[in-house]
Amino acid sequence: AKDLGKNRFMVFENRMHEQLLTRLDQENRLREAVHRGELRLHLQPVFAVQEGRVVGAEALVRWQDPFRGLQQPGSFIPLAEETGMIIEIDRWILLEACRTLRHWQVESPWTAPAWVSVNLSAAHLDLPDLTDHVAYALATTGLSPQCLVLELTETVMMRDVAVTSARLQELRELGVRIAIDDFGTGYSSLGYLRDIPVDVLKLDRSFITGLVGNGRQQELVSAIVQLGHTLGLRVVAEGVEDADELNLLTVMGCKFVQGYHLGRPEPAHQLYERLTTPALH
Ligand code: C2E
Ligand code: CA
Ligand code: CA
Ligand code: CA
Protein backbone atom coordinates (compact mmCIF):
# COMPACT_ATOMS: atom_id res chain seq x y z
CA ALA A 1 0.00 0.00 0.00
CA LYS A 2 2.90 2.25 0.74
CA ASP A 3 4.38 1.62 -2.73
CA LEU A 4 1.03 2.32 -4.34
CA GLY A 5 0.90 5.69 -2.65
CA LYS A 6 4.37 6.47 -3.87
CA ASN A 7 3.44 5.51 -7.44
CA ARG A 8 0.36 7.69 -7.32
CA PHE A 9 2.45 10.58 -6.19
CA MET A 10 4.85 10.00 -9.07
CA VAL A 11 2.00 9.94 -11.58
CA PHE A 12 0.76 13.21 -10.13
CA GLU A 13 4.23 14.71 -10.29
CA ASN A 14 4.66 13.57 -13.89
CA ARG A 15 1.37 15.18 -14.92
CA MET A 16 2.47 18.47 -13.40
CA HIS A 17 5.70 18.31 -15.30
CA GLU A 18 3.83 17.68 -18.51
CA GLN A 19 1.67 20.74 -18.04
CA LEU A 20 4.60 22.94 -17.21
CA LEU A 21 6.42 22.01 -20.34
CA THR A 22 5.97 24.48 -23.13
CA ARG A 23 6.49 23.42 -26.68
CA LEU A 24 9.79 25.25 -26.69
CA ASP A 25 10.97 23.36 -23.63
CA GLN A 26 10.01 20.14 -25.34
CA GLU A 27 11.84 21.12 -28.47
CA ASN A 28 15.00 21.96 -26.54
CA ARG A 29 14.83 18.81 -24.48
CA LEU A 30 14.32 16.66 -27.55
CA ARG A 31 17.31 18.37 -29.14
CA GLU A 32 19.41 17.46 -26.11
CA ALA A 33 17.98 13.95 -25.84
CA VAL A 34 20.20 12.62 -28.60
CA HIS A 35 23.35 14.10 -27.06
CA ARG A 36 22.43 13.02 -23.55
CA GLY A 37 21.93 9.45 -24.71
CA GLU A 38 18.22 9.36 -23.88
CA LEU A 39 17.11 7.63 -27.09
CA ARG A 40 16.53 3.89 -26.94
CA LEU A 41 16.49 1.27 -29.65
CA HIS A 42 13.55 -1.11 -29.44
CA LEU A 43 13.18 -4.04 -31.80
CA GLN A 44 10.09 -5.89 -32.97
CA PRO A 45 10.58 -9.36 -34.45
CA VAL A 46 9.52 -10.25 -38.01
CA PHE A 47 8.54 -13.90 -38.47
CA ALA A 48 8.94 -16.17 -41.47
CA VAL A 49 5.65 -18.06 -41.55
CA GLN A 50 6.98 -21.27 -43.13
CA GLU A 51 10.09 -21.63 -40.98
CA GLY A 52 8.17 -20.45 -37.93
CA ARG A 53 11.03 -18.36 -36.65
CA VAL A 54 12.31 -14.83 -36.30
CA VAL A 55 14.16 -13.77 -39.44
CA GLY A 56 14.16 -10.01 -39.08
CA ALA A 57 13.56 -7.15 -36.69
CA GLU A 58 12.25 -3.61 -37.07
CA ALA A 59 14.04 -0.82 -35.22
CA LEU A 60 11.61 1.50 -33.41
CA VAL A 61 12.79 4.51 -31.46
CA ARG A 62 11.83 5.32 -27.87
CA TRP A 63 12.78 8.33 -25.77
CA GLN A 64 13.71 7.69 -22.15
CA ASP A 65 12.64 11.12 -20.92
CA PRO A 66 14.01 11.74 -17.43
CA PHE A 67 10.80 13.59 -16.47
CA ARG A 68 8.05 11.67 -18.19
CA GLY A 69 9.50 8.20 -18.53
CA LEU A 70 9.58 6.10 -21.69
CA GLN A 71 8.00 7.98 -24.59
CA GLN A 72 6.48 6.31 -27.65
CA PRO A 73 7.34 7.76 -31.08
CA GLY A 74 3.85 9.20 -31.51
CA SER A 75 4.62 11.74 -28.79
CA PHE A 76 7.82 13.15 -30.28
CA ILE A 77 8.31 12.08 -33.92
CA PRO A 78 5.88 14.72 -35.25
CA LEU A 79 7.83 17.48 -33.47
CA ALA A 80 11.10 15.96 -34.65
CA GLU A 81 9.81 15.97 -38.22
CA GLU A 82 8.64 19.59 -38.02
CA THR A 83 11.97 20.77 -36.69
CA GLY A 84 14.25 18.60 -38.80
CA MET A 85 15.61 16.83 -35.71
CA ILE A 86 14.31 13.60 -37.22
CA ILE A 87 17.44 13.41 -39.38
CA GLU A 88 19.69 13.13 -36.36
CA ILE A 89 17.33 10.74 -34.57
CA ASP A 90 17.03 8.42 -37.58
CA ARG A 91 20.78 8.45 -38.07
CA TRP A 92 21.34 7.49 -34.46
CA ILE A 93 18.84 4.62 -34.70
CA LEU A 94 20.40 3.46 -37.97
CA LEU A 95 23.85 3.26 -36.40
CA GLU A 96 22.57 1.59 -33.25
CA ALA A 97 20.51 -0.95 -35.21
CA CYS A 98 23.46 -1.88 -37.47
CA ARG A 99 25.77 -2.15 -34.47
CA THR A 100 23.32 -4.34 -32.55
CA LEU A 101 22.62 -6.80 -35.35
CA ARG A 102 26.33 -7.07 -36.19
CA HIS A 103 27.08 -7.79 -32.55
CA TRP A 104 24.44 -10.56 -32.45
CA GLN A 105 25.76 -12.10 -35.63
CA VAL A 106 29.22 -12.34 -34.10
CA GLU A 107 28.02 -13.58 -30.70
CA SER A 108 25.30 -15.92 -31.84
CA PRO A 109 25.40 -16.55 -35.60
CA TRP A 110 22.74 -19.29 -35.56
CA THR A 111 19.99 -17.35 -33.85
CA ALA A 112 20.65 -13.78 -34.98
CA PRO A 113 17.93 -12.39 -37.28
CA ALA A 114 18.97 -12.13 -40.94
CA TRP A 115 18.07 -8.48 -41.24
CA VAL A 116 17.17 -5.33 -39.35
CA SER A 117 14.91 -2.67 -40.82
CA VAL A 118 15.13 1.01 -40.00
CA ASN A 119 12.52 3.73 -40.58
CA LEU A 120 13.60 6.80 -42.51
CA SER A 121 11.50 9.95 -42.67
CA ALA A 122 10.89 11.45 -46.09
CA ALA A 123 13.20 14.41 -45.34
CA HIS A 124 16.25 12.16 -45.80
CA LEU A 125 15.59 12.03 -49.52
CA ASP A 126 16.36 15.75 -49.78
CA LEU A 127 19.85 15.23 -48.44
CA PRO A 128 22.54 14.44 -50.98
CA ASP A 129 24.67 12.60 -48.40
CA LEU A 130 22.05 9.97 -47.50
CA THR A 131 23.83 7.19 -49.35
CA ASP A 132 27.20 8.20 -47.88
CA HIS A 133 25.70 8.14 -44.44
CA VAL A 134 24.22 4.67 -44.87
CA ALA A 135 27.53 3.45 -46.30
CA TYR A 136 29.28 4.92 -43.27
CA ALA A 137 26.93 3.15 -40.86
CA LEU A 138 27.62 -0.19 -42.57
CA ALA A 139 31.37 0.35 -42.76
CA THR A 140 31.78 1.49 -39.18
CA THR A 141 29.71 -1.37 -37.73
CA GLY A 142 30.81 -4.08 -40.16
CA LEU A 143 27.22 -5.07 -40.97
CA SER A 144 26.82 -6.42 -44.46
CA PRO A 145 24.44 -4.41 -46.69
CA GLN A 146 22.13 -7.38 -47.38
CA CYS A 147 21.28 -7.32 -43.66
CA LEU A 148 19.84 -3.81 -43.78
CA VAL A 149 16.38 -2.75 -44.93
CA LEU A 150 15.37 0.91 -45.12
CA GLU A 151 11.66 1.60 -44.63
CA LEU A 152 10.08 4.62 -46.31
CA THR A 153 6.37 5.36 -46.23
CA GLU A 154 4.33 5.38 -49.36
CA THR A 155 3.95 9.17 -49.20
CA VAL A 156 7.62 9.38 -50.20
CA MET A 157 6.56 7.98 -53.55
CA MET A 158 4.37 11.03 -54.20
CA ARG A 159 7.44 13.26 -54.32
CA ASP A 160 9.50 13.96 -57.42
CA VAL A 161 9.74 10.53 -59.05
CA ALA A 162 13.07 11.22 -60.74
CA VAL A 163 14.80 12.37 -57.53
CA THR A 164 13.25 9.62 -55.42
CA SER A 165 14.10 6.80 -57.79
CA ALA A 166 17.66 8.08 -58.27
CA ARG A 167 18.25 8.20 -54.49
CA LEU A 168 16.70 4.80 -53.89
CA GLN A 169 18.66 3.27 -56.75
CA GLU A 170 21.88 4.65 -55.22
CA LEU A 171 20.98 2.99 -51.93
CA ARG A 172 20.16 -0.31 -53.61
CA GLU A 173 23.50 -0.24 -55.37
CA LEU A 174 25.11 -0.32 -51.92
CA GLY A 175 23.31 -3.64 -51.49
CA VAL A 176 20.66 -2.54 -48.96
CA ARG A 177 16.98 -3.21 -49.56
CA ILE A 178 14.14 -0.70 -49.69
CA ALA A 179 10.74 -1.33 -48.12
CA ILE A 180 7.54 0.62 -48.67
CA ASP A 181 6.05 1.09 -45.23
CA ASP A 182 2.32 1.36 -44.52
CA PHE A 183 1.60 0.07 -48.03
CA GLY A 184 -1.94 0.79 -49.13
CA THR A 185 -2.55 3.89 -47.01
CA GLY A 186 -0.74 6.57 -49.00
CA TYR A 187 -3.54 7.36 -51.48
CA SER A 188 -0.90 7.30 -54.18
CA SER A 189 -1.22 5.61 -57.54
CA LEU A 190 0.29 2.18 -57.94
CA GLY A 191 2.24 3.60 -60.87
CA TYR A 192 5.24 4.17 -58.65
CA LEU A 193 5.74 0.42 -58.41
CA ARG A 194 6.71 0.61 -62.06
CA ASP A 195 9.09 3.57 -61.71
CA ILE A 196 10.56 3.28 -58.24
CA PRO A 197 12.92 0.48 -57.31
CA VAL A 198 11.75 -1.28 -54.13
CA ASP A 199 12.24 -4.74 -52.62
CA VAL A 200 9.70 -5.12 -49.84
CA LEU A 201 6.02 -4.20 -49.32
CA LYS A 202 4.89 -3.74 -45.75
CA LEU A 203 1.15 -4.19 -45.79
CA ASP A 204 -0.36 -1.69 -43.38
CA ARG A 205 -1.99 -2.87 -40.17
CA SER A 206 -5.35 -1.39 -41.23
CA PHE A 207 -5.67 -4.20 -43.81
CA ILE A 208 -5.11 -6.86 -41.17
CA THR A 209 -7.42 -5.44 -38.51
CA GLY A 210 -10.87 -6.87 -39.14
CA LEU A 211 -9.60 -9.41 -41.67
CA VAL A 212 -11.35 -12.31 -39.95
CA GLY A 213 -14.96 -12.50 -41.11
CA ASN A 214 -14.60 -9.93 -43.90
CA GLY A 215 -14.48 -11.78 -47.21
CA ARG A 216 -14.02 -8.67 -49.31
CA GLN A 217 -11.06 -7.54 -47.25
CA GLN A 218 -9.58 -11.04 -47.49
CA GLU A 219 -9.82 -10.93 -51.30
CA LEU A 220 -8.10 -7.55 -51.28
CA VAL A 221 -5.24 -8.65 -49.03
CA SER A 222 -4.80 -11.87 -50.96
CA ALA A 223 -4.60 -9.90 -54.22
CA ILE A 224 -2.01 -7.49 -52.76
CA VAL A 225 0.13 -10.39 -51.54
CA GLN A 226 0.02 -11.91 -55.02
CA LEU A 227 0.73 -8.58 -56.68
CA GLY A 228 3.83 -8.19 -54.51
CA HIS A 229 5.03 -11.71 -55.28
CA THR A 230 4.39 -11.26 -59.02
CA LEU A 231 6.62 -8.20 -58.94
CA GLY A 232 9.31 -10.19 -57.13
CA LEU A 233 8.83 -8.33 -53.87
CA ARG A 234 8.86 -9.64 -50.34
CA VAL A 235 5.54 -8.96 -48.56
CA VAL A 236 5.39 -8.41 -44.80
CA ALA A 237 1.99 -8.19 -43.09
CA GLU A 238 2.02 -5.73 -40.18
CA GLY A 239 -0.12 -5.66 -37.06
CA VAL A 240 -0.92 -9.38 -36.79
CA GLU A 241 -2.63 -9.61 -33.42
CA ASP A 242 -4.04 -13.14 -33.20
CA ALA A 243 -3.75 -16.70 -34.45
CA ASP A 244 -6.81 -16.39 -36.74
CA GLU A 245 -5.21 -13.51 -38.65
CA LEU A 246 -1.97 -15.46 -38.88
CA ASN A 247 -3.78 -18.53 -40.23
CA LEU A 248 -5.60 -16.51 -42.88
CA LEU A 249 -2.38 -14.84 -44.00
CA THR A 250 -0.66 -18.22 -44.14
CA VAL A 251 -3.39 -19.60 -46.40
CA MET A 252 -3.04 -16.51 -48.62
CA GLY A 253 0.64 -17.29 -49.08
CA CYS A 254 1.95 -14.34 -47.12
CA LYS A 255 5.47 -15.35 -46.04
CA PHE A 256 6.39 -12.71 -43.47
CA VAL A 257 4.42 -11.38 -40.53
CA GLN A 258 4.93 -8.87 -37.75
CA GLY A 259 2.65 -7.97 -34.88
CA TYR A 260 1.79 -8.32 -31.21
CA HIS A 261 0.81 -11.97 -31.75
CA LEU A 262 4.42 -12.76 -32.68
CA GLY A 263 6.15 -10.24 -30.43
CA ARG A 264 5.94 -6.65 -29.28
CA PRO A 265 8.72 -4.11 -29.68
CA GLU A 266 11.12 -4.49 -26.76
CA PRO A 267 14.59 -3.33 -25.74
CA ALA A 268 17.16 -4.90 -28.05
CA HIS A 269 18.89 -6.90 -25.31
CA GLN A 270 15.57 -8.37 -24.20
CA LEU A 271 14.75 -9.68 -27.66
CA TYR A 272 18.26 -11.08 -27.87
CA GLU A 273 17.82 -12.94 -24.60
CA ARG A 274 14.55 -14.43 -25.78
CA LEU A 275 16.07 -15.55 -29.07
CA THR A 276 19.10 -17.12 -27.45
CA THR A 277 17.14 -18.79 -24.63
CA PRO A 278 14.60 -21.03 -26.41
CA ALA A 279 13.24 -22.34 -23.10
CA LEU A 280 11.80 -18.93 -22.34
CA HIS A 281 9.82 -18.63 -25.59
P1 C2E B 1 5.55 1.93 -38.21
O1 C2E B 1 6.87 2.10 -38.87
O2 C2E B 1 4.40 1.54 -39.06
O3 C2E B 1 5.81 0.89 -37.03
C1 C2E B 1 4.88 -0.07 -36.59
C2 C2E B 1 4.12 0.43 -35.39
O4 C2E B 1 3.05 -0.45 -35.12
C3 C2E B 1 4.97 0.46 -34.11
O5 C2E B 1 4.51 1.54 -33.30
C4 C2E B 1 4.61 -0.87 -33.47
O6 C2E B 1 4.80 -0.89 -32.08
C5 C2E B 1 3.15 -0.96 -33.80
N1 C2E B 1 2.68 -2.34 -33.85
C6 C2E B 1 3.39 -3.45 -34.17
N2 C2E B 1 2.62 -4.55 -34.11
C7 C2E B 1 1.39 -4.15 -33.74
C8 C2E B 1 0.14 -4.83 -33.52
O7 C2E B 1 0.01 -6.05 -33.64
N3 C2E B 1 -0.92 -4.05 -33.16
C9 C2E B 1 -0.82 -2.72 -33.01
N4 C2E B 1 -1.92 -2.05 -32.65
N5 C2E B 1 0.34 -2.03 -33.22
C10 C2E B 1 1.42 -2.74 -33.59
P2 C2E B 1 5.50 2.60 -32.63
O8 C2E B 1 6.76 1.92 -32.19
O9 C2E B 1 4.70 3.37 -31.65
O10 C2E B 1 5.89 3.53 -33.86
C11 C2E B 1 4.91 4.30 -34.49
C12 C2E B 1 5.44 4.95 -35.74
O11 C2E B 1 6.48 5.91 -35.42
C13 C2E B 1 6.11 3.97 -36.69
O12 C2E B 1 5.13 3.30 -37.44
C14 C2E B 1 6.96 4.91 -37.52
O13 C2E B 1 6.17 5.55 -38.50
C15 C2E B 1 7.39 5.93 -36.47
N6 C2E B 1 8.73 5.59 -36.00
C16 C2E B 1 9.12 4.73 -35.01
N7 C2E B 1 10.46 4.70 -34.89
C17 C2E B 1 10.95 5.55 -35.82
C18 C2E B 1 12.27 5.96 -36.21
O14 C2E B 1 13.31 5.53 -35.66
N8 C2E B 1 12.36 6.88 -37.22
C19 C2E B 1 11.25 7.37 -37.87
N9 C2E B 1 11.45 8.27 -38.84
N10 C2E B 1 10.01 7.01 -37.54
C20 C2E B 1 9.86 6.10 -36.53
CA1 CA C 1 8.05 0.93 -40.22
CA1 CA D 1 4.19 0.37 -40.94
CA1 CA E 1 3.29 4.05 -39.65
TrEMBL record:
Keywords for this protein: Membrane, Transmembrane, Transmembrane helix
Organism phylogeny: Bacteria, Bacillati, Actinomycetota, Actinomycetes, Micromonosporales
Keyword rRNA processing in annotation: no
Gene Ontology annotations for the cellular component aspect, listed alphabetically: membrane
Protein name: Diguanylate cyclase (GGDEF)-like protein/PAS domain S-box-containing protein
Source species, domain of life: Bacteria
Domain EAL: 23-279
Residues of the full protein shown: 522 to 802 of 803
GO BP annotations, alphabetical order: regulation of DNA-templated transcription; signal transduction
